[in-house]
């Protein structure tokens, strides 16, 4: 059984994330969203809220689960019997950064692999940080996020 780890802060999860997870769920036996605690980023939603929003957003996919983590990604992956991480890219800048991370992870754990999926063109402009900013300023983010996230953002703002 092949398990892929999809790490991120998912603050909040967007339709871009949803697309990547759905595509990964068709390619791998299991997809584990590794939701980074990431307190230094001062997330809008708590770790528990982000896990819950991810679980709600992927309840229709039996082979997808969400778990919080802190520490090294290679250690989290190893604890889940995986040496494969999924990363999404929207631009060349994303790819350059992700390539650096992929090479570092492989240096930390030989044999560790990174699979890159490109964002669909119609979703490539969406980012969690832009969604947070638009929502904070009273804009409509419904076209960019799953329904549970939209409801949670409405409660926040």
Automatic annotation (TrEMBL):
<feature type="binding site">
    <location>
        <position position="73"/>
    </location>
    <ligand>
        <name>substrate</name>
    </ligand>
</feature>
<keyword id="KW-0963">Cytoplasm</keyword>
<feature type="binding site">
    <location>
        <begin position="88"/>
        <end position="90"/>
    </location>
    <ligand>
        <name>ATP</name>
    </ligand>
</feature>
<dbReference type="GO" id="GO:0015937">
    <property type="term" value="P:coenzyme A biosynthetic process"/>
</dbReference>
<keyword id="KW-0067">ATP-binding</keyword>
<feature type="binding site">
    <location>
        <position position="17"/>
    </location>
    <ligand>
        <name>ATP</name>
    </ligand>
</feature>
<feature type="site" description="Transition state stabilizer">
    <location>
        <position position="17"/>
    </location>
</feature>
<feature type="binding site">
    <location>
        <position position="9"/>
    </location>
    <ligand>
        <name>substrate</name>
    </ligand>
</feature>
<dbReference type="InterPro" id="IPR004821">
    <property type="entry name" value="Cyt_trans-like"/>
</dbReference>
<feature type="binding site">
    <location>
        <position position="41"/>
    </location>
    <ligand>
        <name>substrate</name>
    </ligand>
</feature>
<comment type="subunit">
    <text>Homohexamer.</text>
</comment>
<keyword id="KW-0547">Nucleotide-binding</keyword>
<dbReference type="InterPro" id="IPR001980">
    <property type="entry name" value="PPAT"/>
</dbReference>
<feature type="domain" description="Cytidyltransferase-like">
    <location>
        <begin position="5"/>
        <end position="133"/>
    </location>
</feature>
<keyword id="KW-0808">Transferase</keyword>
<comment type="pathway">
    <text>Cofactor biosynthesis; coenzyme A biosynthesis; CoA from (R)-pantothenate: step 4/5.</text>
</comment>
<protein>
    <recommendedName>
        <fullName>Phosphopantetheine adenylyltransferase</fullName>
        <ecNumber>2.7.7.3</ecNumber>
    </recommendedName>
</protein>
<dbReference type="GO" id="GO:0004595">
    <property type="term" value="F:pantetheine-phosphate adenylyltransferase activity"/>
</dbReference>
<keyword id="KW-0460">Magnesium</keyword>
<dbReference type="Pfam" id="PF01467">
    <property type="entry name" value="CTP_transf_like"/>
</dbReference>
<feature type="binding site">
    <location>
        <position position="87"/>
    </location>
    <ligand>
        <name>substrate</name>
    </ligand>
</feature>
<keyword id="KW-0548">Nucleotidyltransferase</keyword>
<keyword id="KW-0173">Coenzyme A biosynthesis</keyword>
<comment type="function">
    <text>Reversibly transfers an adenylyl group from ATP to 4'-phosphopantetheine, yielding dephospho-CoA (dPCoA) and pyrophosphate.</text>
</comment>
<feature type="binding site">
    <location>
        <begin position="123"/>
        <end position="129"/>
    </location>
    <ligand>
        <name>ATP</name>
    </ligand>
</feature>
<dbReference type="GO" id="GO:0005524">
    <property type="term" value="F:ATP binding"/>
</dbReference>
<feature type="binding site">
    <location>
        <position position="98"/>
    </location>
    <ligand>
        <name>ATP</name>
    </ligand>
</feature>
<feature type="binding site">
    <location>
        <begin position="9"/>
        <end position="10"/>
    </location>
    <ligand>
        <name>ATP</name>
    </ligand>
</feature>
<comment type="similarity">
    <text>Belongs to the bacterial CoaD family.</text>
</comment>
<dbReference type="GO" id="GO:0005737">
    <property type="term" value="C:cytoplasm"/>
</dbReference>
<dbReference type="InterPro" id="IPR014729">
    <property type="entry name" value="Rossmann-like_a/b/a_fold"/>
</dbReference>
């Amino acid at each position: 059984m092949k398990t892929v780890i999809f790490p991120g802060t998912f603050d909040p999860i967007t339709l871009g994330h949803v697309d990547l997870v759905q595509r990964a769920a068709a390619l791998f036996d299991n997809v584990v969203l590794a939701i980074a605690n990431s307190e230094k980023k001062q997330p809008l939603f708590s770790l528990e809220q982000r896990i819950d929003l991810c679980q709600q957003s992927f309840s229709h996919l039996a082979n997808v689960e969400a778990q919080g983590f802190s520490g090294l990604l290679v250690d989290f992956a190893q604890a889940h019997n995986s040496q494969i991480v999924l990363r999404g890219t929207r631009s060349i800048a994303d790819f350059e950064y992700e390539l650096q991370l992929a090479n570092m992870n492989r240096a930390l754990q030989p044999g560790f692999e990174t699979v890159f999926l490109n964002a669909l063109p119609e979703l490539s402009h969406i980012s969690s940080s832009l969604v947070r900013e638009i929502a904070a300023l009273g804009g409509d983010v419904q076209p960019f996020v799953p329904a549970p996230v939209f409801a949670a953002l409405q409660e926040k703002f």
